[in-house]
Amino acid sequence: EGCEPSGGICGSPSSTCGNTRVGASDSIGTMAMAQKDANQVVVGVLALQGSFAEHASSLKRSGEGVQAVEVRVAAQLEHCDALVIPGGESTTMARLAEREGMAKALREFAAAGKPVWGTCAGLIMLSDKAECTKQGGQALIGGLHVSVIRNFFGAQVESFETKLPAPACIRVQGDDDHFRAVFIRAPAIADVSEGVEVLAEYHLSDVQRQRKPDAPSKVAVAVRQGHLWATAFHPELTSDLRWHKAFADMAREVRAARAAAESQSASCPVHESNGYNRMELPCRYFVV
Protein backbone atom coordinates (compact mmCIF):
# COMPACT_ATOMS: atom_id res chain seq x y z
CA GLU A 1 0.00 0.00 0.00
CA GLY A 2 2.89 2.30 -0.73
CA CYS A 3 5.62 2.86 -3.25
CA GLU A 4 9.29 3.67 -3.47
CA PRO A 5 9.99 7.36 -2.95
CA SER A 6 12.73 7.53 -5.56
CA GLY A 7 11.75 5.84 -8.79
CA GLY A 8 11.88 2.03 -8.80
CA ILE A 9 8.60 0.48 -9.72
CA CYS A 10 6.80 3.80 -9.51
CA GLY A 11 8.54 4.86 -12.68
CA SER A 12 8.80 8.44 -11.47
CA PRO A 13 11.89 9.97 -9.84
CA SER A 14 9.69 12.53 -8.11
CA SER A 15 7.31 10.06 -6.52
CA THR A 16 6.21 11.07 -3.03
CA CYS A 17 4.41 7.86 -2.10
CA GLY A 18 6.67 7.20 0.85
CA ASN A 19 6.95 10.78 2.03
CA THR A 20 5.06 12.56 4.76
CA ARG A 21 4.44 16.26 4.20
CA VAL A 22 2.15 18.27 6.43
CA GLY A 23 1.60 22.01 6.17
CA ALA A 24 -0.92 23.99 4.11
CA SER A 25 0.65 25.37 0.96
CA ASP A 26 -2.64 25.97 -0.86
CA SER A 27 -4.56 28.79 0.77
CA ILE A 28 -8.21 28.35 1.64
CA GLY A 29 -8.85 31.71 0.03
CA THR A 30 -7.52 30.43 -3.29
CA MET A 31 -9.86 27.46 -3.10
CA ALA A 32 -12.84 29.69 -2.39
CA MET A 33 -12.01 31.84 -5.42
CA ALA A 34 -11.77 28.75 -7.62
CA GLN A 35 -15.14 27.55 -6.37
CA LYS A 36 -16.79 30.73 -7.67
CA ASP A 37 -16.24 29.57 -11.26
CA ALA A 38 -19.39 27.63 -12.06
CA ASN A 39 -17.65 25.74 -14.87
CA GLN A 40 -14.81 24.53 -12.68
CA VAL A 41 -14.92 21.49 -10.42
CA VAL A 42 -12.65 21.56 -7.36
CA VAL A 43 -11.12 18.17 -6.54
CA GLY A 44 -9.19 17.98 -3.30
CA VAL A 45 -6.33 15.53 -2.81
CA LEU A 46 -5.65 14.51 0.79
CA ALA A 47 -2.03 15.62 1.22
CA LEU A 48 -0.98 14.21 4.55
CA GLN A 49 1.19 11.42 3.16
CA GLY A 50 1.59 9.33 0.02
CA SER A 51 1.26 9.98 -3.72
CA PHE A 52 -0.84 13.14 -3.46
CA ALA A 53 1.43 15.17 -5.78
CA GLU A 54 1.03 12.59 -8.55
CA HIS A 55 -2.77 12.63 -8.20
CA ALA A 56 -2.87 16.43 -8.25
CA SER A 57 -0.72 16.47 -11.40
CA SER A 58 -2.94 13.89 -13.14
CA LEU A 59 -6.09 15.84 -12.27
CA LYS A 60 -4.61 19.09 -13.58
CA ARG A 61 -3.73 17.33 -16.85
CA SER A 62 -7.09 15.55 -17.14
CA GLY A 63 -8.84 18.44 -18.87
CA GLU A 64 -10.07 21.99 -18.64
CA GLY A 65 -12.28 22.98 -15.76
CA VAL A 66 -10.58 20.81 -13.13
CA GLN A 67 -8.99 22.52 -10.14
CA ALA A 68 -6.80 20.15 -8.09
CA VAL A 69 -5.99 21.31 -4.57
CA GLU A 70 -3.84 19.61 -1.92
CA VAL A 71 -5.90 19.32 1.27
CA ARG A 72 -4.11 19.42 4.63
CA VAL A 73 -6.67 20.93 7.03
CA ALA A 74 -10.35 20.16 7.58
CA ALA A 75 -11.54 23.65 6.63
CA GLN A 76 -10.28 23.14 3.07
CA LEU A 77 -12.81 20.34 2.52
CA GLU A 78 -15.64 22.88 2.60
CA HIS A 79 -14.50 24.20 -0.79
CA CYS A 80 -14.08 20.79 -2.47
CA ASP A 81 -16.61 19.15 -4.77
CA ALA A 82 -14.80 15.81 -4.50
CA LEU A 83 -11.81 14.22 -2.79
CA VAL A 84 -9.04 11.78 -3.68
CA ILE A 85 -7.39 9.77 -0.90
CA PRO A 86 -4.04 8.68 -2.36
CA GLY A 87 -1.87 5.63 -2.01
CA GLY A 88 0.77 5.63 0.68
CA GLU A 89 0.82 3.99 4.10
CA SER A 90 -2.72 3.71 5.45
CA THR A 91 -1.79 3.45 9.13
CA THR A 92 0.43 6.52 8.96
CA MET A 93 -2.20 8.41 6.98
CA ALA A 94 -4.90 7.54 9.50
CA ARG A 95 -2.73 8.63 12.43
CA LEU A 96 -1.93 11.93 10.74
CA ALA A 97 -5.62 12.50 10.00
CA GLU A 98 -6.41 11.99 13.68
CA ARG A 99 -3.52 14.22 14.78
CA GLU A 100 -4.49 17.01 12.39
CA GLY A 101 -8.14 16.81 13.45
CA MET A 102 -9.30 15.69 10.00
CA ALA A 103 -10.68 12.21 10.65
CA LYS A 104 -14.19 13.37 11.57
CA ALA A 105 -14.31 15.85 8.68
CA LEU A 106 -13.28 13.12 6.20
CA ARG A 107 -16.04 10.81 7.43
CA GLU A 108 -18.59 13.62 7.20
CA PHE A 109 -17.42 14.53 3.68
CA ALA A 110 -17.94 10.96 2.46
CA ALA A 111 -21.27 10.60 4.29
CA ALA A 112 -22.55 13.85 2.74
CA GLY A 113 -22.66 12.25 -0.70
CA LYS A 114 -19.69 14.06 -2.24
CA PRO A 115 -17.51 11.89 -4.52
CA VAL A 116 -14.50 10.26 -2.87
CA TRP A 117 -11.93 8.08 -4.62
CA GLY A 118 -9.45 6.02 -2.64
CA THR A 119 -6.41 4.43 -4.30
CA CYS A 120 -4.45 1.65 -2.59
CA ALA A 121 -4.10 2.99 0.98
CA GLY A 122 -7.11 5.19 0.22
CA LEU A 123 -9.11 2.06 -0.59
CA ILE A 124 -8.23 0.67 2.83
CA MET A 125 -9.28 3.88 4.56
CA LEU A 126 -12.63 4.00 2.74
CA SER A 127 -13.51 0.37 3.45
CA ASP A 128 -15.81 -0.72 6.24
CA LYS A 129 -13.45 -3.53 7.26
CA ALA A 130 -9.71 -4.15 6.85
CA GLU A 131 -7.88 -7.41 7.53
CA CYS A 132 -4.16 -8.01 8.20
CA THR A 133 -3.69 -4.58 9.72
CA LYS A 134 -0.79 -3.62 11.95
CA GLN A 135 -0.89 -4.41 15.65
CA GLY A 136 -3.44 -2.19 17.35
CA GLY A 137 -5.81 -2.15 14.37
CA GLN A 138 -6.52 0.36 11.65
CA ALA A 139 -8.61 3.53 11.91
CA LEU A 140 -10.96 3.77 8.92
CA ILE A 141 -13.14 6.42 7.33
CA GLY A 142 -15.58 3.74 6.25
CA GLY A 143 -18.68 4.06 4.10
CA LEU A 144 -17.57 1.72 1.31
CA HIS A 145 -19.25 -1.62 1.99
CA VAL A 146 -16.30 -3.89 1.28
CA SER A 147 -13.74 -5.86 3.23
CA VAL A 148 -10.11 -5.50 2.16
CA ILE A 149 -6.92 -7.44 2.88
CA ARG A 150 -3.99 -5.14 3.50
CA ASN A 151 -0.74 -5.95 1.60
CA PHE A 152 -2.52 -8.86 -0.10
CA PHE A 153 0.06 -9.19 -2.86
CA GLY A 154 3.07 -9.17 -0.56
CA ALA A 155 6.06 -6.96 0.15
CA GLN A 156 7.56 -4.15 -1.91
CA VAL A 157 9.70 -6.53 -3.99
CA GLU A 158 6.54 -8.39 -5.05
CA SER A 159 4.96 -5.27 -6.55
CA PHE A 160 4.03 -5.60 -10.24
CA GLU A 161 2.33 -4.08 -13.25
CA THR A 162 -0.22 -5.60 -15.61
CA LYS A 163 -2.89 -4.78 -18.18
CA LEU A 164 -6.54 -5.15 -17.17
CA PRO A 165 -9.80 -4.80 -19.13
CA ALA A 166 -11.16 -1.28 -18.79
CA PRO A 167 -14.69 -0.89 -17.36
CA ALA A 168 -17.27 1.01 -19.40
CA CYS A 169 -16.79 4.25 -17.44
CA ILE A 170 -13.11 4.23 -18.45
CA ARG A 171 -13.51 3.00 -22.04
CA VAL A 172 -15.73 5.97 -22.89
CA GLN A 173 -12.83 8.28 -21.97
CA GLY A 174 -10.60 6.87 -24.76
CA ASP A 175 -10.07 4.19 -27.39
CA ASP A 176 -8.07 1.61 -25.38
CA ASP A 177 -10.07 -1.35 -24.08
CA HIS A 178 -7.44 -2.01 -21.39
CA PHE A 179 -5.55 0.03 -18.85
CA ARG A 180 -2.18 -0.26 -17.14
CA ALA A 181 -2.50 -1.22 -13.47
CA VAL A 182 0.40 -0.65 -11.07
CA PHE A 183 0.19 -2.67 -7.83
CA ILE A 184 2.59 -1.62 -5.05
CA ARG A 185 2.23 -3.53 -1.76
CA ALA A 186 -1.39 -3.43 -2.79
CA PRO A 187 -4.51 -4.50 -0.92
CA ALA A 188 -7.20 -6.67 -2.46
CA ILE A 189 -10.96 -6.53 -2.02
CA ALA A 190 -11.97 -9.75 -0.30
CA ASP A 191 -15.71 -9.23 0.05
CA VAL A 192 -18.24 -6.96 -1.65
CA SER A 193 -21.68 -6.19 -0.24
CA GLU A 194 -24.87 -5.61 -2.19
CA GLY A 195 -24.88 -2.25 -3.93
CA VAL A 196 -21.16 -2.29 -4.69
CA GLU A 197 -20.24 -2.61 -8.38
CA VAL A 198 -17.01 -4.39 -9.28
CA LEU A 199 -15.22 -2.40 -11.98
CA ALA A 200 -12.07 -4.52 -12.36
CA GLU A 201 -10.80 -7.93 -11.29
CA TYR A 202 -7.33 -9.44 -11.27
CA HIS A 203 -6.55 -13.12 -11.84
CA LEU A 204 -3.61 -14.25 -9.73
CA SER A 205 -0.56 -15.56 -11.61
CA ASP A 206 0.75 -19.08 -11.07
CA VAL A 207 3.59 -17.70 -8.94
CA GLN A 208 1.18 -15.67 -6.81
CA ARG A 209 -1.10 -18.69 -6.34
CA GLN A 210 1.85 -20.79 -5.22
CA ARG A 211 2.77 -18.08 -2.75
CA LYS A 212 -0.83 -17.82 -1.50
CA PRO A 213 -2.36 -21.30 -1.98
CA ASP A 214 -5.42 -20.48 0.13
CA ALA A 215 -6.25 -17.30 -1.79
CA PRO A 216 -9.00 -17.15 -4.43
CA SER A 217 -7.96 -17.36 -8.08
CA LYS A 218 -9.20 -13.81 -8.69
CA VAL A 219 -9.90 -10.73 -6.58
CA ALA A 220 -11.70 -7.44 -7.10
CA VAL A 221 -9.30 -4.51 -7.48
CA ALA A 222 -11.66 -1.65 -8.40
CA VAL A 223 -15.17 -0.96 -7.16
CA ARG A 224 -17.82 1.75 -7.21
CA GLN A 225 -20.61 2.35 -4.71
CA GLY A 226 -22.61 5.38 -5.73
CA HIS A 227 -20.36 8.40 -5.16
CA LEU A 228 -17.52 6.28 -3.69
CA TRP A 229 -14.75 4.88 -5.90
CA ALA A 230 -11.83 2.70 -4.89
CA THR A 231 -8.90 1.10 -6.71
CA ALA A 232 -6.19 -1.18 -5.35
CA PHE A 233 -3.78 0.03 -8.05
CA HIS A 234 -2.21 3.42 -8.82
CA PRO A 235 -3.58 5.20 -11.93
CA GLU A 236 -1.68 8.33 -10.87
CA LEU A 237 1.63 6.57 -11.59
CA THR A 238 0.81 6.03 -15.27
CA SER A 239 0.28 8.36 -18.24
CA ASP A 240 -3.32 7.13 -18.64
CA LEU A 241 -5.55 9.95 -17.41
CA ARG A 242 -8.89 8.22 -18.01
CA TRP A 243 -9.53 7.31 -14.37
CA HIS A 244 -8.97 10.91 -13.32
CA LYS A 245 -11.13 12.22 -16.17
CA ALA A 246 -13.96 9.87 -15.22
CA PHE A 247 -13.77 10.86 -11.56
CA ALA A 248 -13.75 14.58 -12.42
CA ASP A 249 -16.77 14.05 -14.69
CA MET A 250 -18.63 12.32 -11.87
CA ALA A 251 -17.74 15.14 -9.47
CA ARG A 252 -19.11 17.66 -11.95
CA GLU A 253 -22.34 15.68 -12.40
CA VAL A 254 -22.86 15.28 -8.66
CA ARG A 255 -22.27 18.99 -8.08
CA ALA A 256 -24.80 19.87 -10.81
CA ALA A 257 -27.37 17.48 -9.34
CA ARG A 258 -26.92 18.93 -5.85
CA ALA A 259 -27.28 22.46 -7.19
CA ALA A 260 -30.46 21.50 -9.06
CA ALA A 261 -31.90 19.89 -5.92
CA GLU A 262 -31.09 22.95 -3.85
CA SER A 263 -32.68 25.22 -6.46
CA GLN A 264 -35.82 23.10 -6.56
CA SER A 265 -36.15 23.00 -2.79
CA ALA A 266 -35.62 26.75 -2.58
CA SER A 267 -38.62 27.27 -4.87
CA CYS A 268 -40.84 25.31 -2.47
CA PRO A 269 -41.04 27.32 0.78
CA VAL A 270 -41.94 25.39 3.90
CA HIS A 271 -42.89 26.38 7.42
CA GLU A 272 -40.02 25.77 9.81
CA SER A 273 -42.46 24.14 12.20
CA ASN A 274 -43.12 21.14 9.94
CA GLY A 275 -39.60 19.81 10.69
CA TYR A 276 -38.89 18.37 7.24
CA ASN A 277 -35.50 18.50 5.60
CA ARG A 278 -36.27 19.97 2.19
CA MET A 279 -33.29 18.18 0.59
CA GLU A 280 -34.72 14.78 1.51
CA LEU A 281 -38.20 15.03 -0.05
CA PRO A 282 -39.48 16.41 -3.37
CA CYS A 283 -41.63 19.54 -3.26
CA ARG A 284 -44.93 17.71 -3.50
CA TYR A 285 -44.43 16.16 -0.06
CA PHE A 286 -44.18 19.46 1.78
CA VAL A 287 -47.14 21.00 3.55
CA VAL A 288 -47.13 24.78 2.98
Q: How would you characterize the overall build of this protein?
A:
The protein has helices at residues 28-35, 52-61, 90-99, 103-111, 121-126, 168-171, 206-211, 242-266, and strands spanning 41-46, 66-71, 82-85, 116-119, 127-131, 144-149, 160-165, 178-183, 188-192, 197-203, 218-225, 228-231. By secondary structure, the chain is an alpha/beta fold. It has a 7-stranded mixed sheet with strand order 2-1-3-4-12-11-10. A 3-stranded mixed sheet has the order 5-6-9. It is globular, with a radius of gyration of 19 Å. The model is unreliable at 3-16, 20-36 and 271-288 (pLDDT under 50).
Quick structural overview:
Helices cover 27% and strands 23% of the residues.
Secondary structure blueprint with pairings:
Layout: H1 28-35, E1 41-46, H2 52-61, E2 66-71, E3 82-85, H3 90-99, H4 103-111, E4 116-119, H5 121-126, E5 127-131, E6 144-149, E7 160-165, H6 168-171, E8 178-183, E9 188-192, E10 197-203, H7 206-211, E11 218-225, E12 228-231, H8 242-266
Parallel strand pairs: 1-2, 1-3, 3-4, 4-12, 5-6
Antiparallel strand pairs: 6-9, 7-8, 10-11, 11-12
Structural class: alpha/beta
Low-confidence residue ranges: 3-16, 20-36, 271-288
Termini gap: 53 Å
Tertiary shape: globular
> What kind of assembly state do the chains in view correspond to?
single chain
In angstroms, what is the radius of gyration?
Answer: 19 Å
Tell me the number of helical segments per DSSP (H or I, 4 or more residues long).
8
List the strand order in the largest sheet: 2-1-3-4-12-11-10
Average pLDDT taken over every residue: 83
Number of E-type strands: 12
Helix content: 25-40%
Strand content is 15-25%
- The succession of helices and strands, N to C, reads HEHEEHHEHEEEHEEEHEEH
Question: Can you summarize the main beta sheet?
Answer: 7 strands, mixed
